[in-house]
Design goal:
Helix content is 13%, strand content 63%. By secondary structure, the protein is mainly β. A four-stranded antiparallel β-sheet has the order 4-3-6-7, with no helix packed on it. The chain starts with 6 loop residues before the first helix and ends with a strand.
Length: 119
């Protein structure tokens, strides 16, 4: 026969299991912006020095549909703490969805999707 468990205890147990299986990342991707033919990304590095590259796949949003328009790459050299990474690339005015990947030693370390509007 089943007994009723404490909901808080069940939620805590699920959180612990999720943390154990998700791995801990030291990199997080913040806001994205665009100016002067450059995509700027705020990246927080809680670990030590980190290198690799950033890949930004650009999707233009038109009529509620997205279409891949470009892929930009830039080298990545992160210090501990807040970093601003600049990725050269030309975008025409419009609405975009950016798929951002931080890659180190051929392995994806962090990923995010950000929306931007280019005027």
């Amino acid at each position: 026969m089943f007994t009723r468990k404490n909901p808080a205890l069940v939620c805590f147990a699920m959180l612990v299991v999720a943390l154990l299986f998700s791995g801990f990342t030291t990199l997080s991707i913040g806001d994205a912006g665009y100016a002067n033919n450059t995509i700027s990304l705020r990246i927080t590095n809680a670990g030590g020095l980190s290198g690799g590259y950033v890949q930004v796949t650009v999707y233009e949003i038109n009529n509620n549909q997205q279409e891949e328009t470009d892929v930009f790459y830039a080298p990545l050299s992160l210090q501990q703490g807040e970093n601003t990474v600049l990725v050269p690339g030309t975008l025409k005015p419009g609405q975009y969805k950016l798929y951002i990947y931080l890659i180190e030693n051929g392995e994806r370390k962090a990923a995010a999707i950000r929306d931007i509007v280019v005027n």
